[in-house]
Amino acid sequence: MKIIIRSLLILIIALFINKTSVGLPQKNKNNTYDVVIYGGTASGVMAAIASAKEGAKVVILEPKLHIGGMVTGGLAATDIGRRSVIGGYPLEFFKRLGKYYNYQSMTRDSIGWFPEPHVAELVLNQMIKEAGITVYYQKRLKEKGGVKIEGGKITGLIMENGDEFTGKVFIDATYEGDLMAFAGVSYIVGREAKEVYNEYSAGIRDSFGSQSAYDDAGKLLPRVQTQAPGPVGSGDTKTQAYNFRLSLTNDPGNLVPFPKPGHYDTRRYIDLLRTTLTLINKEGAVQAAEHMFPGMGKVPHDKVDLNAADYVGGNWDYPDGSYQRRKQIWEDHVDYVAGYMYFLGHDEHLPQAYRDAINRWGLSKDEFIDNHNWPYELYVREARRMVGVYVITQHDVVSDMQKTDAIGLGSYGLDVHPVQAWVNDKGLLKYEGRPQRTEQERMKHIPYQIPYRAIIPRKSEVKNLLVPVCLSASHVAYSTLRMEPQFMILGQAAGTAAYLAVKQQKTVQDIDIKELAALLRTRGAFLESKIKTLGDLKPGMGID
């Protein structure tokens, strides 16, 4: 009964927020703001809070129906790296979550690092309300002619419904980088070749895998390429796999059975079947099923954040795709991921004991309740990447880690999911995309500084735009930067820089960097780390 009441309250709150926030502004009928933020991801929210708390008039334009991006869209098991690099408003967010869950006497640091999605959205909305920020939902940029530019500056954004929002500084906080791209800023999709930035993990990587690439009838499995990817280290335009981060539970009172998708094709899961049977033969049916649901105890209320079902090769058209093409890819991913879990719970080639163990889990009834309990966000791990004033490369996150214009810290290791599947001359299914990593990169111990230059475009292109999510980084470097805490850290920096650009009446490229750093520190952001080399690590010191 409590779960039903809680679900109804969540739905009522969500509907109220969306109903009252869609449409024309009431307090600002001219739609004119100091800072206009396109994309209500967690990064966009932090940017808005940072600007608004300094006194700027701020608006968030969110194309969908919910703010928070992946933080409220399924990614509950936060990719942290070192906790000690997270400060400022992002840390305040996680502390509020700890208070919500009454962690003060229950956990080591009293901080809610791994929140339920609906709770994360609740807290973000509280912070937005307290900061006096205007949010408008279902405001998507007009695909053609949606960005107005005069004299090298963006002057306004036109939405699909014709609404126009003008401002002094703009922030693109989307995962796709549409505002950036539509404004004519240089960007790249895919992987640079090794020689572009002299990165030893760049480009196409060594392949792995030993299963057959054919089904029992001798037909090639779906989405398996017949040509080899190319020489190791060469570049391409392909992007690592996407999926959905499902919020699952084994609480019978809060469980929705895994749905069968509208387009269900068991051939998509033949490789999954083979690897699952191998694991079952090795460890037993129930133990093999338990491998599907790691991290029990991280997310409150008997939930896990499932990070499986990578749809390898299904997303290559997404980053630069039209809205219509992206919609098709999105729906295809829904079918694939839903089918993945339905297959494991129902396919008769799997032992009954295994299927029963899988079906003790299901979608969380109290999450995403206005979307059939399905996550609001496709996990776009990487899309466009700006080529801005400075491009962060592997060297910047491994060896040359100190910067004169630091605005935040990163600490996660290089993390790339498979990019493509192909069949070799022996008929074996091979996956490719994982980066070469040193022991230091696997340890994730040494924080690196993120430079301000990486979130601003070249002055010759646009003078009043900041890009904290699709920032200027190589594919390799982006694989550590693409974590939600870092996006939030960069969001706070972007929002603060936007305020300073308005205050100083300067381009984003010309603001006073020392003043930016000082203001960030005043607001609790961490720009330096005491750990700069492996020698600074104490014996047995792990991720703090």
From TrEMBL:
<keyword id="KW-0004">4Fe-4S</keyword>
<dbReference type="InterPro" id="IPR036188">
    <property type="entry name" value="FAD/NAD-bd_sf"/>
</dbReference>
<keyword id="KW-0479">Metal-binding</keyword>
<keyword id="KW-0411">Iron-sulfur</keyword>
<keyword id="KW-0560">Oxidoreductase</keyword>
<dbReference type="Pfam" id="PF12831">
    <property type="entry name" value="FAD_oxidored"/>
</dbReference>
<protein>
    <submittedName>
        <fullName>FAD-dependent oxidoreductase</fullName>
    </submittedName>
</protein>
<dbReference type="InterPro" id="IPR039650">
    <property type="entry name" value="HdrA-like"/>
</dbReference>
<keyword id="KW-0408">Iron</keyword>
